[in-house]
Hints:
With 216 residues, the chain is α+β, with helices and mostly antiparallel strands. The chain has helices at residues 21-28, 31-34, 45-62, 84-93, 133-147, 163-172, and strands spanning 6-7, 11-14, 66-72, 99-106, 117-124, 153-159, 175-186, 189-198.
Amino acid sequence: MDPITLHTERLVLRPFEERDEAAVAEACDDPDIQRFVPVPEPYTLKDAAEFVRNTSRNGWRDDTMYNFGLFTRDGGGERGGEGGREAAAREAGGEGGVLVGSMGLVRLELLRTAERQAELGFWTARGHRRKGYTAEAGRAVAEWAFSALGVERLEWVAQVENEGSRAVAQRLGFVEEGIQRARIVHRGTRRDARIAALLPSDWGYGLETPYLPSPR
């Protein structure tokens, strides 16, 4: 599909562009991101170029991943005195916007089947965590998924130890459904993962496919 841009009170969610590569490289060359997200380690400017120019762009074109860069709308963000990193982020955002993270719908192979399913994935740049940006973006992406794409089950999956990601999912209203053993392969090792789901009905949207919950 053609890439789109979403807006929230504090953020612009738009597809990554070549001007963003330095900011992406700065953000992803972070042990806290590399611990849980399948990005190269170390993460270089060349890796960022591959992600921006090929992986992310092709995801939109081929309907395999709809990925957004998350940028502040006012250009200010909440700066943590990170010097070159913040300068790169401001240049990337245009009009002063700062890169605060990335979010997308992934595993879209079931989106256009009877399953109508997608998964929400995200990372947040150091210096912009615990400020509500990722949950704010998540609300916009989930609403778009339900209202425009017809998603009927939005999943979240993360390593059991990834409490930051879990906190975002909880704020969005995802309902945890358990721990799946050996679900994720990360750096050559299988790891257990929590899985949770958000349904359109959780937010007051209807489902095109009838839903019969099991007795509780």
